[in-house]
């Protein structure tokens, strides 16, 4: 190349010359220059190719990435990193590289000064490389100033530079060893220096920098460091940081505090879905918000998925070249090794790209789920009663527990919308290249299957909608049952509601059965289509996407709940605290108004009493003032902050002091004053930990009076301007009520300078109030002072005649008070491993014979598949004589028979498997859980958070319904595929028996570590999920109180914190899947390497067809299905925990039998009604003291007996003992001479009735709430309503007895 004419070659001519002289140029192929680079024992690239393409490739990469990377660093400043030894070394090496590159440049100028003219490339390439090294040095320092601890861009740059230099390095070694004439020693030395420096830079780039200064995440002393913090790029991409969690999980129990914090992760979901104000002038669109929030993440996943889909077809093409090499006995051996290495590198690159794609998708899905949960919670805080009529607590909880998970699945599978058609198009292109026009027959089959798949998809969508509707109804009913379980037990209604649940469950299973059969038909077409289309095509290593539960497309949008209206308060009026003018209210726009033409004004610092008959609208009036009702017309104005005391006290699962403070700053003097005024000091002395005693869910360890006083204390401590109190004195003793009125509410109480509206039936308080509002049939009939209303002798006088003789003094005891830790049953966060008994229980639930039959069908199906592929490989090896193969009819007949048998088996096995694993197991396990929970004693429900129970009936049952059957099928398919692949590989290359056992050992250890970690992370995630649902359910029950106190933001923060705690356990499980996949697929790629390597070594004795079958199996089956085998075994163990948790509650302590067939119950018992207590003693639990001691009393039939006593004396405990809610510790109770302990619970409770302290109504018709067993006629029901003074109220309802009650009776207040 020492030619003076070459000095005039321009840059374009250099590039054309390099292409011309490269081994890939068509003209070079014509001139037989392949002999230099391909058909030779020692191949090499031309010097021009090395000095241009190989030298410029890393430079082009860095300059192409620089603008985008610089913009990214400018927008994401993480802090400033001090100069370290590592950074100094990388910077110094960058300057050395620049010096070495430009040394070649100056050497070229020196040569020209000596009249030695080289090609211009010797001037251009060192210049480009030198400038690029300066850019790399600049980026090293810029990353340091922006707080980048580990750079993926720079790591890739140094890796590409090293790979390109390795080719030139080998060429230089060959030239030096051959003593080529004109060998350039100086450039050889500078290149060796360049190679060493690039290698050193690559090694240094694998180490992270020190943490940046002034970083909140780094210096946060409370939280554990985030998972990706301080990790270098290779460790991050291979999830190496997870080893810390794995070591903790395998060595001992993994604790919550050992799970990494996620504070450093992005929180864009909160910005778009939650915090950003909505555009009210446009129709809300959830899809647009998701696009704006998560668009960049979906774009990144799109790029990775597209690159992976293109790389998938590189394997078959390389395999095709390898088969041609095996057939060509004269080909050089190095070509086989080259194809083997290329196949291994292609598979490895696919592994890294695919799992980076899945990591992005799952993390995006996690953020999406968090955002949707946050949006649902925030919407639930503002949802109106009209919307609540169609969206009950159970349905909203189901949105959070199930539908939000479907959004998470969407992030993973949405790319299949374009990826699947792309894969089909590329596959058809390759088939056309190999088969020609005959591929059109396969295309015709595919087109014929399109309408079939379309029908299946539409029917699947229909079934999914029906399934979700049934699931919503079931969870809604179960939530009501759990909230009103005490009423169910007192009235012996368990069987009626059990039948209602089972009726909904039967419909749900019927839809699941249809879906399973439809899925079996879809599986049949899915298997038969490739069989008909591509049996003669090239092997295509198409990987399956990782399994994740809930593969059905989400058909429900949480946005359906987001259409409620906001209640807005008008501008404040002057002079009065409360002003209502010509206001009409209803619970929804579709309902008739329940408050009509309301007019009144309340001046500041006044005490106003609201009285009236039952059902006249007193509680509705307070709800209207709070904005809980729909204002049809008129004006409502409230001046100042509001505190609300509901009629049914709402107590949080927190300490007693936290319930009173309610998020406000603790001021001890004010707090002590409030506690004394609300008569809570005697209760604090009784409670084991004083005001630090943890109150159970719904205040189960407090009496009704205590709960009401805590609710009142919460309002008083808030120091609001306006107090709305809905009959707070009805649940306390008479003397306690007088104390509270005098110290708190009355003219001399601590609220004397506040505006107070008191709904009451206590006539003794009315003479001292400032104003009395009398309601009658939803209207203000009278208003004035006590004396004025008495003189009118109107509705108020009638009210006094009704209630003056009987003050309502309902009260309850505090005997249920326990220690702080005894009221919460928490599931274990970790167990050593899932016991074999759990698998056995699931097998028994499926039916042993049916399970064995399904396993046999799976085995036969995979044997038929293996045999058909093996027969096809033998067919391809048949010699071609005179243009045709011999024995074609025999080959075709056997191949068709095997294909038919496989299609028949694959269509039958899903039917059997669905019947065994999905329908039978789901039905039996749910039935056992439901029956056991309904038969648990009342103490179990008082100790167990409702979120735990809802979680069992929603999430765990959904896992048993949908996930476990799919996992079992995929596990069995993976197992049989792996065994078949090993058989094929050993048949083709027996030398593989040397490599498979060590690799199997590696698999064993990886699986062992992964399963231990995944199991504990699953349990942590499951345990941390229940508080999310419990807090959400608690919020929904007390949403009116939260809104009244304007505490929405604090509850939102609490919900977000609980969701974050749940995601802290879920995120490591995502990375654990990637950790497993990268390692298992890497070992699977090693099997591909050894299978191809041994095939190249023994190519002279192997047939090309068998080699192709062996390597294609290793590409498709080993790399994919062995990974799946380990993952599905882990998924089975982690998801079978759902069976364990369901069985755990199915085996809880049971109360006595509902009915005893041999019990001595006289005919018509009880006839007289004589009740006798003989030495009766009662305790709530075996480890507690007696709350009733040696009670002996006889009550004759027909007597009216009043039971009085101070709070906590045991009045309600005596009643609960009469219903055997708690069994006697000593003594007995006899009714008409029959010991109630000797008869069934339902035999007793059907004959005794009670008016519960806490009113409970279930969603459904009013008649169903009165007579769920339909034992009485309408006349008898109307008679009972008349006796309860409700006949007029019910008669005024549009549907009368068929009036649909909202959950909890929200529309009847």
Give keywords.
1309 residues; single chain; elongated; 43 helices; disordered N terminus; alpha/beta; four-stranded antiparallel beta sheet; six-stranded mixed beta sheet
List the helices and strands and how they pair.
Blueprint: H1 11-21, H2 26-30, H3 34-37, H4 47-75, H5 85-113, H6 121-145, H7 152-178, H8 185-205, H9 233-237, H10 242-251, H11 268-275, H12 286-312, H13 314-327, H14 333-380, H15 385-390, H16 393-413, H17 416-435, H18 439-483, H19 485-491, H20 494-533, E1 576-586, E2 595-603, E3 607-612, H21 618-625, E4 630-638, E5 642-645, H22 656-661, H23 668-677, H24 681-686, H25 704-717, E6 722-726, H26 734-745, E7 755-759, E8 771-776, E9 779-784, H27 786-792, H28 795-803, H29 836-846, H30 848-876, E10 880-881, E11 884-885, H31 888-934, H32 938-943, H33 946-988, H34 996-1037, H35 1039-1044, H36 1048-1097, H37 1104-1135, H38 1137-1146, E12 1171-1178, E13 1188-1195, H39 1211-1218, E14 1224-1231, E15 1234-1235, H40 1241-1245, E16 1260-1261, H41 1262-1266, H42 1274-1283, H43 1287-1291, E17 1300-1301
Parallel strand pairs: 3-7, 3-8, 5-6, 6-7
Antiparallel strand pairs: 1-2, 1-4, 8-9, 10-11, 12-13, 12-14, 14-15, 16-17
Helix pairs in contact: 1-4, 4-6, 4-7, 5-6, 5-8, 7-8, 10-34, 11-12, 11-14, 12-14, 12-17, 13-14, 13-37, 14-16, 14-36, 16-18, 16-34, 18-20, 18-33, 20-31, 29-31, 29-38, 30-31, 30-33, 30-37, 31-33, 31-38, 33-34, 33-37, 33-38, 34-36, 34-37, 36-37
């Amino acid at each position: 190349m020492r030619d003076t004419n070459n000095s005039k070659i321009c840059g374009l001519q250099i590039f054309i010359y390099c292409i011309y002289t490269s081994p890939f140029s068509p003209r070079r192929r014509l001139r037989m220059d392949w002999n230099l680079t391909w058909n030779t024992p020692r191949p090499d690239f031309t010097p021009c190719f090395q000095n241009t393409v190989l030298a410029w490739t890393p430079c082009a990469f860095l300059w192409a990435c620089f603008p985008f990377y610089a913009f990214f660093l400018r927008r994401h400043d993480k802090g400033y990193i001090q100069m370290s030894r590592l950074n100094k070394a990388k910077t110094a090496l960058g300057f050395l590289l620049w010096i070495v590159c430009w040394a070649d440049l100056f050497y070229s100028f020196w040569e020209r000064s000596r009249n030695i003219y080289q090609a211009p490339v010797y001037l251009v390439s060192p210049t480009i490389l030198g400038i690029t090294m300066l850019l790399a040095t600049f980026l090293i320092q810029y990353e340091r100033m922006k707080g980048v601890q580990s750079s993926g861009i720079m790591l890739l740059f140094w890796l590409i530079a090293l790979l390109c230099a390795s080719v030139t390095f080998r060429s230089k070694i060959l030239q030096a060893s051959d003593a080529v004439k004109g060998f350039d020693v100086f450039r050889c030395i500078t290149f060796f220096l360049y190679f060493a420096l690039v290698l050193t830079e690559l090694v240094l780039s694998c180490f992270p920098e020190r943490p940046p200064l002034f970083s909140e995440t780094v210096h946060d002393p409370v939280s554990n460091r985030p998972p990706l913090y301080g990790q270098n790029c290779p460790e991050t991409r291979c999830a190496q940081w997870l080893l810390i969690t794995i070591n903790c999980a395998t060595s001992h129990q993994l604790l919550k505090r050992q799970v990494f914090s996620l504070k450093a992760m992005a929180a864009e979901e909160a910005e778009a879905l939650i915090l950003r104000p909505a555009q009210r002038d446009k129709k809300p669109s959830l899809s647009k918000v998701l696009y704006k929030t998560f668009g960049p993440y979906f774009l990144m996943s799109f790029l990775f998925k597209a690159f992976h889909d293109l790389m998938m077809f590189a394997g078959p093409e390389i395999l095709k070249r390898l088969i041609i090499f095996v057939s060509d006995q004269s080909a050089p051996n190095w070509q086989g090794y080259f194809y083997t290495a290329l196949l291994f590198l292609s598979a490895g690159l696919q592994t890294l790209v695919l799992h980076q794609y899945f990591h992005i998708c799952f993390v995006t899905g996690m953020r999406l789920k968090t955002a949707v949960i946050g949006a649902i919670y925030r919407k639930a805080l503002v949802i109106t009663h009209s919307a609540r009529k169609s969206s009950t607590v159970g349905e909203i909880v189901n949105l959070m527990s199930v539908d939000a998970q479907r959004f998470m699945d969407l992030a993973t599978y949405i790319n299949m919308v374009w990826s699947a058609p792309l894969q089909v198009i590329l596959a058809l292109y390759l088939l056309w290249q190999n088969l020609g026009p005959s591929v059109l027959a396969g295309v015709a089959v595919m087109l014929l299957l399109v309408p079939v798949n379309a029908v299946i998809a539409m029917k699947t969508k229909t079934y999914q909608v029906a399934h979700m509707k049934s699931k919503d109804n079931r969870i809604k009913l179960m939530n009501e049952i759990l909230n009103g379980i005490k009423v169910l037990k007192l009235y012996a209604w368990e069987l009626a509601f059990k039948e209602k649940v089972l009726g909904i469950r039967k419909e749900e299973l019927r839809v699941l059965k249809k879906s399973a059969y439809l899925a079996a038909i879809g599986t049949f077409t899915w298997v038969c289509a490739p069989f008909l289309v591509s049996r003669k095509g090239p092997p295509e290593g198409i990987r399956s996407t990782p399994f994740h539960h809930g593969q059905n497309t989400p058909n429900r949008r949480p946005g359906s709940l987001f259409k409620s209206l906001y209640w807005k308060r008008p501008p404040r009026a002057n002079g009065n605290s409360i002003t209502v003018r010509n206001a009409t209210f209803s619970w929804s726009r579709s309902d008739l108004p329940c408050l009509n033409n309301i007019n009144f004004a309340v001046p500041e610092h006044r005490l106003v009493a609201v009285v009236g008959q039952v059902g006249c609208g007193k509680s509705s009036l307070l709800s209207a003032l709070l904005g809980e009702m729909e204002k049809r017309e008129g004006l409502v104005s409230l001046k100042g902050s509001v505190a609300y005391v509901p009629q049914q006290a709402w107590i949080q699962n927190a300490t007693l002091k936290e319930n009173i403070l309610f998020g406000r700053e603790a001021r001890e003097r004010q707090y002590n004053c409030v506690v004394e005024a609300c008569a809570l000091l005697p209760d604090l002395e009784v409670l084991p930990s004083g005001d630090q005693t943890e109150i159970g869910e719904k205040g189960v360890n407090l009496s009704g009076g205590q709960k009401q006083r805590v609710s009142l204390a919460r309002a008083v401590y808030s120091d609001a301007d306006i107090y709305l109190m809905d009959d707070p004195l009805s649940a306390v003793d008479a003397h306690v009520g007088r104390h509270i009125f005098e110290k708190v509410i009355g003219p001399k109480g601590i609220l004397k300078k506040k505006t107070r509206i008191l709904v009451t039936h206590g006539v003794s308080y009315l003479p001292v109030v400032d104003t009395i509002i009398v309601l009658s049939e939803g209207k203000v009939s009278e208003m004035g002072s006590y004396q004025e209303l008495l003189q009118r002798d109107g509705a108020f006088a009638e009210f006094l005649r009704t209630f003056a003789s009987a003050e309502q003094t309902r009260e309850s005891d505090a005997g249920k008070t326990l220690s702080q830790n005894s009221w919460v049953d928490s599931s274990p966060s970790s167990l050593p491993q899932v016991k074999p008994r759990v698998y056995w229980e699931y097998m028994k639930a499926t039916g042993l014979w049916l399970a064995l039959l399904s396993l046999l069908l799976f085995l036969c199906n995979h044997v038929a598949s293996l045999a058909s592929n093996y027969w096809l490989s033998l067919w391809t090896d048949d010699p071609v004589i005179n243009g045709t193969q011999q024995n074609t009819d025999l080959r075709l007949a056997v191949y068709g028979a095997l294909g038919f048998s496989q299609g028949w088996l694959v269509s039958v096995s899903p039917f059997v498997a669905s019947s065994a694993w999905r329908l039978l197991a789901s039905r039996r396990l749910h039935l056992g859980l439901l029956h056991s929970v309904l038969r648990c004693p009342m103490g179990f429900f008082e100790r167990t958070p409702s979120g735990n129970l809802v979680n069992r009936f929603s999430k765990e049952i959904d896992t048993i319904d949908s996930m476990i059957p799919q996992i079992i099928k995929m596990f069995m398919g993976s197992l049989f595929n792996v065994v078949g692949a090993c058989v094929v590989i050993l048949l083709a290359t027996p030398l593989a028996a040397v490599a498979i056992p060590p690799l199997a050992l590696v698999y064993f250890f990886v699986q062992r570590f992964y399963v231990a970690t995944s199991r504990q992370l699953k349990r942590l995630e499951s345990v941390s999920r229940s508080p999310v649902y419990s807090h959400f359910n608690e919020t929904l029950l007390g949403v009116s109180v939260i809104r009244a106190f304007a505490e929405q933001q604090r509850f939102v923060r609490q919900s977000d914190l609980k969701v974050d705690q749940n995601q802290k356990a879920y995120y490591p499980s995502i990375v654990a899947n990637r950790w497993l996949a990268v390692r298992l697929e890497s070992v699977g790629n090693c099997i591909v390497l050894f299978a191809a390597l041994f095939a190249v070594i023994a190519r002279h004795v192997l047939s090309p067809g068998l080699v192709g079958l062996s390597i294609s199996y290793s590409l498709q089956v080993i790399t994919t299905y062995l990974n799946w085998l380990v993952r599905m075994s882990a998924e089975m163990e982690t998801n079978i925990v759902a069976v364990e948790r369901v069985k755990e509650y199915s085996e809880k302590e049971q109360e006595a039998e509902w009915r005893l067939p041999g019990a001595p119950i006289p005919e018509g018992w009880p006839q007289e009604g004589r009740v006798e207590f003989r030495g009766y003693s009662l305790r709530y639990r075996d480890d507690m003291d007696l709350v009733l001691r040696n009670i002996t009393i006889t009550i004759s039939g027909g007597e009216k007996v009043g039971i009085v006593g101070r709070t906590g004396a045991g009045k309600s405990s005596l009643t609960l003992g009469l219903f055997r809610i708690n069994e006697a510790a000593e003594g007995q109770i006899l009714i008409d001479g029959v010991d109630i302990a000797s008869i069934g619970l339902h035999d007793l409770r059907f004959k005794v009735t009670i008016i519960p302290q806490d009113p409970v109504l279930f969603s459904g018709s009013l008649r169903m709430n009165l007579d769920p067993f339909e034992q009485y006629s309408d006349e008898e029901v109307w008679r009972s309503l008349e006796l309860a003074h409700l006949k007029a109220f019910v008669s005024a309802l549009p549907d009368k007895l068929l009036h649909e009650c909202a959950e909890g009776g929200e529309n009847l207040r």
